[in-house]
Amino acid sequence: MVLTAALTASNNARLSRRLLWGLILLYVLPGLFARTPWKPEDSTGFGQSFHFFKVPVEQWAYSQIGDRLYVEGGLAAAWLAGLLGKLVSFTGIPYAWLDDAMRLGNVFWLILAGWAIWNTTYRLAKRVELQPEDPLGAAPTRVDYARAVADASVLCLLATLGLLVKAHTQVPEVAELAGLSIILLAAVRSLDRPIGAGWMLGWGIVIAFFARGWAHWLPFLLLLLISSVSHPSMRFGLLRRILRALAILAMGLVPWFIWLMSLKHGEAWWHAWMTWNAQRFLILDPSKSLDTATLVIALKTSLWFLWPILPMAGWTLWRYRSAFQEPSMRIPMAAALAGFVVLLITNPSEEANYIPLLPPLSVLAALGLSTMRRGLISLIDWFAVLCFTLIAVLVWLGWTAATFGFPAKIAANFEKLSPGYVPDVVGLELVVAMLATYAWVRLIIWRTTSRKKALWRPMVLSCGGIILIWLLMMTLWIPRIDYAKTFKMVGQQLATTVAREGGQGPHCVRDFNLGDAQRGTLEYHSALTFYSRQSAVEKHQCRFLILQDDTRRAFPVKFEFEQSQGAEWQQVWSGRRNSDKYEFFFLYQQKSDWLNNHPTPNNAAP
To answer: Where would you find the membrane-spanning parts of this chain (predicted)?
Structure first.
């Protein structure tokens, strides 16, 4: 069955490999460097990775932030970041650059996901049922057509709004994206390469499992399995590959599980992690339910998070509605359906739960580009040109106002967002921003003058617009954004106070009501060791305590602490980030007279 798809060879120019790789690198590299971990998700992910950096590899089965158990996520992304941290530490890299080096793991995961999505689309587009009609012999070859569609699928992924920030922060969802993309590729590859598909499916499951547990990949795999066994041409092929993959998965998991159980606290972490995985499902948590308000949140988040691939994938399904029985449509449809099912049975208000939708929707969106009418493609082109050009003008206008004070009203708004920040014009960043703007102008000129009507053309403009805005933000605005989101200044002030009040030598700090995001980055920036209140280590050794509280409730935690333990502790410092007028930190030191009356086991009289 050949589906109608009007396309000629002149519409099918391949995207240059250099241009495709250049777009990928321009997308992923800006924003990974020249900044500190940002609150909240980036700081939390860095705190977990920083723990693996500090401890030996044989302790990597127990995930922590400081000495506090952390199970809200997986291990794959943190393992890779911790490994990169250990590797670059041997090269003598400055300590302040450690977080930059650890974020390089995102480059690996995104390239892996892009590779899997490209190959998935390429294999599907080569199939007979998706080939364009060729009544006059003017259509491109199967290979050329498949490559052009595969190029477009990677651009569809990069053009997605929801991926932009996630791709540049230390979060486990990026590793999960790679794992799910490999699972989808393995399902497609099972149609013609049975042996390799089994191995690939097993590796995809392992990556997705260690990235964020089983809440996403298990429904993903089950829907693919149901789709395969319900179709005669797929029933035995994919089923056999999945069984082989599960055997491979077991071969990899059993030794790891035995090693995990043999380590200190390994069993405790495993049980806590599996409990967290189960609690992610709404049906297993009686305090949560799928109501109308939740569905509205899911609809609103989907519209912006999955733009523009959601409407494009919808067009593909409508255009190829007569081919739903074909494997080339059933497999990505099943994966997309699994993503929506996972979204509804977990938590639609959590953006991380939309990640499983990106691989199948990117594939479906690219498959339908060849069937779009010229007027619709031109509409997408001009929408991207006008929208991203306007945003770029606003970014430049905001930077001009914040740097030079004109227009004054806009400058005042920036001052409210980051009070106390002193603008500084950095030559290199300014040159990069100007070059990016020039490249965007050249891209618009190419759009208006080129006679090439390549099917990936609208995605080049949309993807280029996303890259332009992100590049401008990460060059012109990144010093101000970093100033507003970093805990570096607070950590340095904390370290200075502890050194001044406690004298020379190593020091540790107890934490009281400190969040995971604050804990991980404050440890990094202050180079101090933090211990929780329950820790036996800090009970007799830590003479300092840091407390976090909120001004919106008139410091209730601070008030209660001083009422109950004021005889033991005296406040020696308080501080906050300049951009946050609500979040405050208070540092306390044990009173000397209290220590004299309550000797510790280390200095008690015999």
So the answer is: 76-98, 107-125, 203-230, 242-261, 295-317, 329-346, 352-370, 382-406, 426-446, 458-478
